[in-house]
Write a structure and sequence with these properties.
With about 180 residues, the chain is an alpha+beta fold. It folds into 2 domains: about 130 residues, Alpha-Beta Plaits (2-Layer Sandwich); about 50 residues. It is built from 6 helices and 5 strands. It has a 5-stranded antiparallel sheet with strand order 2-3-1-4-5, sandwiched between helices. The longest helix is centred in the last third of the chain and has 45 residues. It is elongated and about 105 Å long. It starts with a helix and ends with a helix.
Length: about 180
């Protein structure tokens, strides 16, 4: 069913609004996936906070104009699904990579972060980025380590004193006996 001009403008505006606030994007070829598989992919995308949209390439090119994802224009060829990470940079890459493990028909074309386009082979780098919660946990553990070591060092002073006093007591008892 052909789209009228207003529908096209709405799609372009919608994708552009998401692209301007997204942290990263993945472009994939979904050719060969069934409707049920695409529905499953969309469901997983909603659960992980990823905006997933199948858009005509001409509309997608217009939608990413003026955003940092304009660098993806060369990869917008053939059947294309756009995935934008909205909460953490690696969400879309993890979603597409995990889904492609079980469905070999889904092929990554390109991805972009910070206005730089990367090839499909770089999806592992982006997918392995920690989530926000994981990054905060790592930061807290790094911040906690010096404090914990300082407390152990402070605790060692009275401990060493007690051990020295015990050794003196034992020595005096041995001399008295």
């Amino acid at each position: 069913m052909p789209l009228n001009l207003e529908d096209k403008r709405a799609i372009v505006a919608s994708v552009n609004a998401v692209a301007s606030e997204a942290l990263s994007a993945v472009v994939a070829d979904y050719r060969g996936l069934s409707v049920a598989q695409m529905t499953e992919l969309r469901k997983k995308a909603r659960e992980t906070g990823v905006y997933l949209k199948v858009v005509r390439n001409t509309l997608a090119k217009r939608a990413v104009e003026g955003t940092e994802y304009e660098c993806l224009n060369d990869s917008l060829v053939g059947p294309t699904v756009l995935a934008f990470s909205q909460e953490d940079p690696g969400a879309a890459a993890r979603l597409i990579k995990d889904f492609a493990k079980d469905h070999d028909k889904l092929e990554v074309k390109a991805l972009a972060v910070g206005g730089v386009a990367y090839g499909a082979q770089d999806i592992d780098v982006l997918a392995k980025l920690p989530t926000r919660d994981e990054a905060l946990a790592q930061l807290l553990s790094v911040m906690q380590a010096p404090v914990a070591k300082f407390v152990r060092t402070l605790n060692e002073v009275p401990g060493k004193f007690v051990r020295t006093m015990a050794a003196v007591k034992d020595k005096k008892q041995q001399e008295a006996a």
